[in-house]
Structure formats: C-alpha cells, structure tokens
Design brief:
This protein is mainly alpha-helical. 45% of the residues lie in helices and 6% in strands. It has a two-stranded antiparallel sheet with strand order 1-2. The longest helix is centred in the last third of the chain and has 15 residues, at 115-129.
C-alpha cells in the first residue's frame, strides 16, 4: 500500500496550484465545485459518491471520515476501485485532504516552497517509515 499512497500523493501535488484547488466562495474547500473541480478526495471518489455528497449537504465542511461512513451506510462505494485499498488508512486520506485544504500549502506554480514542500516531504518520509 506504500506505493499506492506515494502515487496518490505525487498525483495530488502535480494536479494542484493555488488557482486549481476545489474551493467556492463562502464555502471554502468542497468535494466538487460548481465548475467541476474536485478536492484531493473528490478526485478519487466515485461519480455516484460525489453526486450523493452534494445531494445530501456534505459537499463542504465535512471530514472524509464522516463522508465515507455515510456513503457506506448508503451502500455507495466511496472511492474509485484503484484507490479503494486506501480506505483502510483514513489517517493518510485525512492528511492528503488537509494538504489540499490549506491555502498556504500552494502558490501559482504548485506547492509553496515553504509550507507545502515541507508538508509533502514529511508525508513522504512517514509513508516510507510506515507511520502514515
């Protein structure tokens, strides 16, 4: 699972900059914006899960742990098949979402040189150590 985590972390870092994060005015970060942008978790969620989250008022301000629990109760697969093994490690998924959610992690080129790069280096080290 270490390789899968590192792959998703790398994809997430390559995908975002300060202007491409999934945010909406007065709502902050959202799983899917009105323009179709997705947050770190939204990118790996199934289309059915995203639709359910928006329909049930959980698109913003709700942790992925709560969303995943609600989706499972509704018998909806939370993540795309490739990423489903990561459901065993909510700590990692929450850390990845936190990386996306905090604006100071990003600048117009991608990761910010200070906070963002340090956070990703820390996450990578912990993944290699088996503590994330």
């Amino acid at each position: 699972m270490k390789e899968l985590k590192l792959e998703l972390l790398k994809e997430t870092v390559e995908h975002y900059n300060v202007n491409t994060r999934s945010t909406m005015p007065d709502m902050g970060c959202v799983y899917e914006s009105d323009t179709g942008r997705n947050c770190a978790m939204g990118r790996i969620m199934t289309p059915e899960a995203l639709e359910w989250v928006k329909k049930n008022g959980m698109n913003s301000g709700v942790s992925f742990v709560r969303v995943a629990y609600a989706l499972r109760a509704a018998q909806i697969a939370p993540l795309k098949e490739k990423w489903m093994p990561l459901m065993e490690d909510m700590w990692f998924l929450e850390a990845l979402q936190s990386l996306h959610d905090h604006q100071e992690m990003w600048d117009e080129n991608g990761l910010s040189a200070d906070f963002g790069q340090r956070r990703v280096e820390e996450m990578s080290r912990k993944i290699h150590q088996g503590t994330l």
